[in-house]
Write a structure and sequence with these properties.
25% of the residues lie in helices and 23% in strands. Helix 7 packs across helix 8, helix 9 crosses helix 11 and helix 9 runs antiparallel to helix 12. 41% of the residues are buried.
Length: 654
């Protein structure tokens, strides 16, 4: 409370009949203590005889009203001794009103029992305030109270709502092993020194909205049965939440962690939300287990940090990584949309279960996640510059890459897997499609351009979600091209070959390209699957050789091999003889086709075809049809053989 506010309050009469002792023209209100019974003074200013009579008339469990009363340690002891229950040797109070009261010395409420509501709103504790082992059966309100000395609430029990809204703690505050059976409200409270809530339990909602922790805040081994709210909280020093269990959702949105943020061995049954939180010095978050979602949307991590989480979903949309980071995740579906990577960030699957932090031992429980695979699945990197992102053992089968920048510099390592094309039978060709790695964007495009929803559903391609963008083939081809370069830079040539296939497929279906280019790509695809399908090229090679052999047997080989004929004449004795040797032209075969299919002609045809594949002339006399057939085969068949060799090479290249 500011000085001006204090002065204004001292001149304003309280809303109860007050003592007014010591009033002066400068302080016209005087003592603000509520009058005791029919007396005109508060308990602090009663005469000794009247005070003794009042205290003697108080049985244990009485309702008391001492609002605004200034208490010394001796006066408070007299009051509590009068209320002491002989059976339990504990002060027992009914409805207690201490609003605006001031305690100048030690306030010893230890082991006190408040059977009904207890109100300390606006009270001030100048010395040590001791509420250890106290029990509050009704609601307890310390709203607006100020603790200038150490506040002890160790092992206190609050059966009703415990309200510490706007309370200020100028010294250490101890709430260790406290039992909050209903809501615990600390909104806008200020802790100037250490705040310790270790081993406490909160059965209702826990509200720490806009709380300021100037020193160490310890919540280790606290049990929150319902939602816990730490939104806009400020942790100026270390914050420890080790071995904490959250039975509901936990909200740390826009919280600020200036020191270490210890979330070791934390279990969240609901969501763990850190939207817009700032981690200025945290070097480690986790290991923790979350039964639902861990949300880091818009969070800022300024120092090198390691995140170890087992959760159904981890959302890092718009998260800013201002330094290096390592994310080890289990079971999680990770979202990195619009994330900012200023330094290298590694996302890897946690291969082994996370262990508890000392002194606890054993594994963190993963029962709520047992229905999932333990790997990590990346959902999207759209809008992010992934030049500093590295993926290791990540499932990319449903990842959307559209909108990402510098995909060619993305590091993909380990057992990263992509979705595959459905291996259905072709409707136009007698073969089964080969399985190949694809991007989910191609799946979405193929289902969108399907002739009917029924065809799309039966094709095996995956349908897009409602928020997926409708990409054109040129855009999908660009994604394939960039990721292919990324895989090639990582020496992953076989998987890069699949992405080259996908790129060519999208180019072939891109109607903005020229018909000639699309026709050429169509021919390249039909003959050898863009130089990546050895079986297809070999099938065409076998078909071409079979046709060539058949043509040679039926029309290419002559009826019989022509024999050279030598001719000449001698005109006179003694003259030089001139001889001319000539080979007759091959004679086309005639007669029924069945007579031309013989073992001899088959052997000759095979020799011609095999030599043509190897760019050699067979030396066999051929008919005109056979000559042109051999020329065509010497052009086509070696090309098909080369495409088959190229396809094999693409699958075994390092």
């Amino acid at each position: 409370m500011t000085t001006a506010a204090s002065a204004s309050s001292s001149r304003t009469s309280p809303n109860w009949p007050h003592c007014g002792h010591g009033a002066t023209p400068a302080q016209p209100v005087g003592c603000r203590g509520v009058r005791v019974g029919d007396h005109v003074h508060c308990l602090a200013h009663l005469g000794e005889a009247d005070r003794a009579a009042y205290l003697a008339a108080l049985p244990p469990g009485s309702d008391i009203d001492h609002r605004g009363t200034p208490f010394t340690a001796e006066l408070l002891d007299e009051l509590l001794n009068a209320l002491r229950d002989p059976a339990t040797d504990r002060p027992r109070v009914g409805n207690a009103l201490f609003d605006g009261a001031s305690f100048s010395d030690v306030a010893g409420f230890g082991r006190a029992s408040f059977a009904e509501d207890a109100s300390f709103q606006g009270a001030s504790f100048s010395g040590t305030a001791f509420f250890g082992w106290a029990s509050f059966s009704g609601n307890a309100s310390f709203q607006g109270a100020s603790f200038s000395g150490t506040a002890f609430f160790n092992r206190a029990s609050f059966s009703g709502v415990a309200s510490f809204l706007e309370t200020s703690f100028s010294h250490d505050a101890y709430f260790e092993e406290v039992s909050f059976c209903a809501d615990a409200r600390f909104g806008e409270a200020a802790f100037s020194r250490d705040a310790r809530f270790s081993r406490s339990s909160v059965s209702g909602a826990a509200g720490f909205l806009q709380v300021s922790f100037a020193r160490v805040a310890r919540f280790d081994r606290v049990s929150f049965s319902h939602d816990a709210w730490f939104g806009d909280a400020s942790f100026a020093h270390d914050a420890w939440f080790d071995d904490v269990s959250f039975g509901g959702d936990a909200y740390f949105d826009r919280a600020s962690f200036s020191g270490s943020a210890g979330f070791h061995s934390v279990c969240f049954s609901g969501d763990a939300r850190f939207d817009g939180a700032r981690f200025e010095a945290a070097s480690r978050l986790g290991p923790l287990v979350c039964g639902r979602r861990v949300v880091l949307d818009g969070a800022v991590l300024q120092q090198p940090v390691t995140l170890e989480m087992a959760a159904r979903q981890v959302s890092c949309a718009r998260t800013r990584w201002a330094s290096t980071a390592t994310l080890r995740l289990r079971y999680a579906e990770l979202d990195l949309r619009d994330a900012v990577f200023e330094y290298p960030v590694l996302v890897a699957a946690g291969l082994t279960r996370f262990t508890r932090s000392e002194p606890a031992t054993g594994w963190l429980p993963e029962t709520e996640l047992s229905d999932l695979e333990p790997g990590v699945r990346l959902r999207s990197v759209g809008g992010a510059d992934v030049a500093h992102l590295a993926l290791h053992d990540v499932d990319l089968s449903t990842c959307r890459f559209a909108g990402a920048i510098h995909l060619d510099q993305l590091k993909v390592d380990g057992w990263c897997t992509f979705t595959t094309a459905p291996p259905g039978w072709s409707r136009h060709f007698p073969w089964r499609w080969s399985r190949r790695n694809t991007l989910i964007e191609e799946h979405h495009w193929r289902t969108l351009v399907a002739p009917s929803p029924e065809r799309a559903a039966s094709s095996g391609w995956k349908s897009p979600p409602p928020d997926a963008p409708h990409l054109k083939p040129a855009a999908v081809a660009a994604l394939y091209r960039q990721l292919r370069k990324s895989l090639e830079d990582g020496k992953n040539e076989p998987d890069a070959a699949d992405f080259y296939y996908g790129e060519c497929e999208m180019r072939r279906h891109d109607t903005t390209r020229s018909r000639g280019e699309r026709a050429l790509l169509g021919l390249y695809w039909a003959l050898s699957g863009y130089g990546l399908r050895a079986a297809r090229a070999l099938a065409w090679l076998g078909a071409a050789m079979t046709v060539t052999v058949a043509v040679m047997m039926l029309w290419g080989l002559p009826a019989h091999d022509p024999k050279p004929t030598t001719t000449g004449r001698q005109t006179a004795a003694g003259e030089e003889i001139v001889l001319i040797t000539d080979t007759p032209a091959p004679v086309d075969p005639t007669g029924p086709a069945a007579e031309r299919v013989t073992a001899e002609r088959l052997e000759k045809s095979l020799r011609v075809v095999i030599n043509s594949v190897l760019f050699r002339s067979s030396g066999q006399n051929l008919t005109t049809i056979g000559t042109y057939t051999e020329m065509a085969s010497r052009l086509v068949e070696p090309v098909l053989l080369g495409l088959a060799v190229l396809a094999v090479r693409s699958r075994v290249k390092r």
